[in-house]
Write a structure and sequence with these properties.
- By secondary structure, the chain is α+β, with helices and mostly antiparallel strands.
- It has a single domain, classed as DHBP synthase.
- It has 6 helices and 9 strands; from the N terminus they run ββαβαβββαβαβαβα.
- Strands 1, 2, 3, 4, 5, 6, 7, 8 and 9 form a 9-stranded mixed β-sheet that branches.
- Strand 4 and strand 5 form a beta hairpin.
- It starts with 23 loop residues before the first strand and ends with a helix.
Length: 209
């Protein structure tokens, strides 16, 4: 299956999307042989309907890519020791909203926590640790390096002006033991009326700018 996509599809609003999902399918296609699809949404746009959709169709390992300044402001420290790192990324201690939630794991609760991570007025005391959302620190100068988190954050900045990107890998319907590859992710996007964006093209454009 051939999948054509713009490098920067515009972020749809909840009002314009018929099912209220201001999300896109990010094709993590920069590494040959390990390509997969992820649902991506600017953190300030994540409401309960978006999160319900994400939980239903992904692994449930929901991350939020953040720049270093935000991680420092919110006192988001490494998950353990020097941090659980992957290339240019550093996974931090998980978080929940400190107020307005119950267990923290529901779609409603995680949506609130993610919106807090994307809100520039949030302080470190607005978050409890540990929790059910995984912040990921994306270091400055990471643009152009091959990670889905960098591409997700770049896309959210370029299209929605949001310096926080929720992302989660889509589970394959053909074989739920694995994540959906590019072709299956393209079909998923078409089936649900979502835009598609290419990590490889986003990272290339960001590095060239």
């Amino acid at each position: 299956m051939t999948c054509q996509q713009a490098p920067y599809a515009q972020a749809p609003s909840s009002d314009s999307d018929p099912e209220g999902r201001p999300a896109v399918v990010l094709l993590d296609d920069h590494v040959r042989g390990s390509a997969m699809g992820l649902l991506v949404c600017p953190a300030p746009h994540v409401d309960v309907d978006v999160m319900r959709f994400v939980v239903k169709h992904t692994s449930g390992f929901v991350c939020v890519a953040l720049p270093p300044a935000t991680c420092d402001r919110l006192d988001l420290r490494p998950m353990a020791g020097q941090g659980w790192t992957h290339g240019t990324l550093q996974y931090t201690v998980t978080v929940d909203a400190a107020a307005g939630i119950t267990t923290g794991i529901s779609a409603r609760d995680r949506a609130r926590t993610i919106r807090l991570l994307g809100d520039p007025t949030t302080t470190d005391t607005d978050l409890n640790r540990p929790g059910h959302v995984v912040p990921v620190r994306v270091e400055d100068g990471a643009a152009g390096r091959a990670t889905a988190a960098v591409a997700a954050l770049s896309w959210c900045r370029e299209t929605a002006g949001a310096a926080a990107a929720m992302y989660a890998p889509i589970v394959s319907l053909r074989d739920p033991r694995f994540m959906a590859g590019v072709a299956e992710s393209c079909a998923f996007a078409e089936r649900h009326g979502l835009s598609r964006v290419s990590a490889r093209r986003i990272l290339g454009l960001t590095a060239a700018s």
